[in-house]
Amino acid sequence: MKSKSCSSAGSADQSSIKAGLSTTLKAGAQIIVDTLIEQGVDTMFGYLGGVVLPLFDRLYDAPINFINPRHEQGGCHMADAYARASGKVGVVVATSGPGACNLVTGLATAMMDSVPVVAITGQVRTELIGNDAFQEADITGITRPITKYNCIVKDVEDLARTVREAFYIASTGRPGPVLVDVPVDIEVARCKTDGPVEMKLPGYRVRTKGNARQISMVAKEINKAQQPVLYVGGGVIIANASEELRAVAEKAHLPVTTTLLGLGSYDQSRPESLDMLGMHGAAYANYAVQECDLLIAVGARFDDRVTGKLKAFAPNAKIIHIDIDPSSISKNVRVDIPVVGDAKIILAALVKEVEYHERKRWFKKIAEWKNKFPFSYDRDSTTIKPQYVVEEICRLTEGRAIITTGVGQNQMWAAQFYRFSRPRQLISSGGLGTMGYGLPAAIGAQVAKPEALVIDIDGDHSFNMTMTELRTAVENKLPIKVCILNNGYMGMVRQWQELFYNKRYSKSYLSNPDYAAVAEALGAVGITVDKKGDVPKGIKKMLGVARPCVVDFRIEREENVWPMVPAGKSLNEMDGLDILESMA
Amino acid sequence: MKHIISALVENKPGVLAHVAGMFAARAFNIDSLVVGRTEDPELSRMTIVVIGDDRVVEQVRKQLAKVVPVVKVQDFAGQPVVARDLMLIAVSATPEKRPEVLSMVEMFKAKVVDIGQKLLMVEVSGPERKIEAFIDACRPYGIKSVARTGTIAMPRQVKTDSRPLITDNR
């Protein structure tokens, strides 16, 4: 139904566009396309519909690579992952009503993970707004809490400025999604477009520099700390500050732990790396945070999956928080020294003031934890362990692939067992935890990085949610790879049911299709691996294929993710340490 | 504790919804919210009375400032301000009770703005406490209906003395 034109947005509009081209006046649709190009957009994602027909007509001749997803949610995740992989703004277009509503999950995902996305939605004609018109939805109302900013354009004169502002707001400060809703009559209305249009944002200011006095205070604290820990989030990747982070960590000799979204900001093969912290983080990272005397948070937001029980979080530590979003500071944890600004600028200033200290006892203690509780699993098992699959993917790709994930156990195993060495290498829905993110994210990342090897490490139930997008990859010749860790369960909730609900596996099981056959039917290559001995062979075969490829790994069905900080417990109260210790 | 927060916002559609939605989404408690035009046609002022401890109010202030069309945010806590509410109240006042009610109006420096056979409509402005006191005083006569604005506020200019001549800080 969606692709059918709204009767009222029909032929009259077409003629008025043509009329617009013959004069100096420009139609709204053309203004949008021209502003996109002016903003450097060469790639976008979107789905057609009645009220965006004028815009799509203008896109027909535009020098923009346009990817059609099979569902707007997929398109929004693609734009999001395109942004995460490239550092540019991702753009997605959808029609009014259902099209716009289908963006909601994608926008909320981008909002939680601070991803610059600009969404342009069509809207019914201005005079119909509020009348429950066909395919009308109050999308600015619906998306207000899940966008950094949104607005509806009711005058074509405001269109160029608004689209420009959308890009500026989406990509500066703490980035986030911005939605611009454009009624179809504004797309066809014409106006003069001579001269530059100035942005008008009196309420939008971004602090980037960081207060010099506070930076000196931070340096002083670092220089005198006996047991410091750097706690790094996705903000460092967004700020392109990995080099500066490495410089600080090396010069001051600081152990570094990252959040899920921070993985890749610091090379995990470096000796200072403590890998990921949090609910399923490394035991050594969690212990280090709990015992540190100084916690330096950079571009992280003290999420509950990271801190565990707030009152018991890093109880002996002075807390420093470097973040571009002032509202992040002291939101969850009382901060001793805040520095508001861009992580790249602040870390570059900080490195000049920090001194090297050996901190022998602290690093010795950490090494002991690392030896005692590494991430591990039963390597002698005869079944396929998911951790083994991820380790093998890492080994056979030499740790070079861009990894996207679904959400749940698959995501945690990918985070624990793949080794990330560079920023923008892991693309995962952290804050919102959006199942179904992995496949469209792989497509978006592959569009951004055509030469890269992009692998979606997914769960069977996550993959189910958006697997229709496989056809998008096939159609656009995007050679993404999907490795399904197939345990036949919604694995993470099954784990919770096992641990906290007496193994009553209520509704955590769905019957799965034959994924290899599905892949083949959609035009990709499908491989099934059900024997441990075939895992390396299956991965090699996948890597040898130049087309999109899905490998269905039939893994151990009731494997759990360890360690685990149960909800409401503090970070050092981890379950599963005995298991890790016995496997170490 | 009650805090009066004053926010200068862009005068355009959706701003009120944005601010109100943010308060709801973040589970902040609003005691009152008043929006009105300012001397600048492009700007409106929102005066919001929030209940919460200092930590909550600090978050309210920061989250408000983060809303793109919000231009400036001030928390008036700890500084001398003039804070006023406006109320229209319809009180039962039969002819024999009328003098009593009128003398009460006089006492509160309120104003009768409409008169009916059985009702008086009274306009009262002042600090919230005064409004509450007037409502209490009217109860014995019977209150037909009440319409109130919520608080608007402005900081005092006099800062030489920590105790202003007239205090109505809350």
Briefly characterize the structure:
The complex is a heterodimer of chains A (584) and B (170). Chain A is of the alpha/beta class.
Q: What is the strand tally of chain B?
A: 9
Q: What characteristic shape of chain B results from the CA principal axes?
A: elongated
What's the total helix number of chain B? 4
CATH evolutionary superfamily of the largest domain in chain B: ACT domain
Instruction: Please report the distance between the alpha carbons of the first and last residues of chain B.
Output: 9 Å
Which fold name corresponds to the CATH topology of the largest domain in chain B?
A: Alpha-Beta Plaits
Measured as a percent range, the helix fraction of chain B is 25-40%
Q: Which CATH C-level class of the largest domain in chain B is it?
A: Alpha Beta
* Mean pLDDT score of chain B: 91
The tally of helices of chain A reads 25
CATH topology of the largest domain in chain A: Rossmann fold
What's the SSE pattern of chain B? EHEEHEEHEEHEE
User: Could you say how many structural domains of chain A there are in total?
Assistant: 3
What is the oligomer described by this structure?
heterodimer
Number of domains of chain B: 2
Number of strands of chain A: 20
| Order of strands, widest sheet of chain A | 3-2-4-5-7-6
Strand content of chain A: 15-25%
Average pLDDT value of chain A? 95
Radius of gyration of chain B: 19 Å
